[in-house]
Amino acid sequence: MRLLFLQDFLDLIFPRNCLQCGRALFDFEPCLCTVCQGSLPLANFHMRAFDNELTSKIRGLMPVSRVMAFLRFSKKGKSQKLLHQLKYRNMPEIGVEMGRLFGLSLVNERLQSEWDVIVPVPLHPMKQKRRGYNQSEEFGKGLSKSMNIRLENLLERRKFTETQTKKTRLQRLENVEEVFDLRNGGNVQGLRILLVDDVITTGATLCACANVLLDCGAKHVDLATIAAGGQ
Predict the structure, then answer these.
(1) I need a surface site. Which of 29, 56, 80, 140 has the fewest CB within 10 A?
(2) Residue at 24 is within a domain
(3) Distances from the Cα of 146 to the Cαs of 31, 41, 47, in angstroms?
(4) Phosphoribosyltransferase domain: from which residue to which, for each copy (predicted)?
(5) How confident is the model at residue 64 (pLDDT cuts 50, 70, 90)?
(6) CA–CA separation, 11 vs 9, rounded Å?
């Protein structure tokens, strides 16, 4: 009872508003109101995870498995605003919420039994220290909670790379070459892995990470992101 009173008091002093539209949130709404949740540009790639425009994008970069994205990315659209808030406005809760919502969709399709572990794409330690968190890990936390699958940081980024935003497909591939490695003590032998990131454009980063995991003995690696971009 005291906790509920305290929460009501805090909400009165520091009102919680939807990060998309600014409306006041109900207690059951973590950071997006129900209206904004219902208007998200869902991609539904998990409904045809083995054969969609994302699987064709990564074909030839890694053994093709499931490739999924929760949202469709569009410039100046809702997905871009959410990703910008997540990465540059110190709002890790957005990543957790996107993971939670996407995880519920995957559970609805009875896919949660397909993976043993969720692995986020790592940030370089310098970049993570500056941001304060890894947005891909926050997404993974939400997925982990919804699907009851453990989250493990099994990869590390050995080199600091330039941003991929304005690079061509070839430049992106070259930029992540030999960047990732398995963490010391990490063991992925025989594991079915869901590798997660914030956005997929060319797929270069995700495929570089996936190939490290496969080379180290993972049974298979599926890919999931918050949004799917162009190119």
Answers:
(1) 56
(2) no
(3) 16, 20, 18
(4) 136-230
(5) confident
(6) 5
- The bridge status of strand 155-157 relative to strand 180-182 is antiparallel
Structural domain harbouring 61: 42-159+178-228
Question: Hey, what are 102's tokens?
Answer: 């996407």
**Considering the entire predicted model, what is its pTM?**
0.88
* Domain contains 219: yes
In a domain, residue 34? The reply is: no
Tokens of 29: 């709404």
Closest CA to 194 of 209, 179, 173: 209
| Overall domain count for the chain | 1
CA 204 to chain CA centroid, Å, is: 15
Residues 6+ apart with CB under 8 A from 79: 40, 41, 71, 72, 73, 226, 227
Domain-embedded: residue 53: yes
Give the C-alpha separation, 58 to 61, whole Å. 5
Q: What is the CATH number of the domain that holds 191?
A: 3.40.50.2020
